[in-house]
Design goal:
alpha/beta, three-stranded parallel sheet
Length: 77
Amino acid sequence: VAVGTHGIFSYDRKKQASAEDTLRKSGIRVVTTDAIRRSPEYLEANSDWLSYVSINPILTNAVRRCILRLSISDMFR
């Protein structure tokens, strides 16, 4: 399993293969955040190796805490 914050998958010109194809063939499962939005079609086509975790709740809470002048670090205790 590979985990990352931003799911940026590129094309390898030498191998003439996309990262999606390489990951799919390797059997590596990838979990990333939804910081980079993907279409429902993309998510469905790559659901065999790719999973997303939403960062919306933590960002919403952080913004709320900033507005109310509360500690953001308290979110992680």
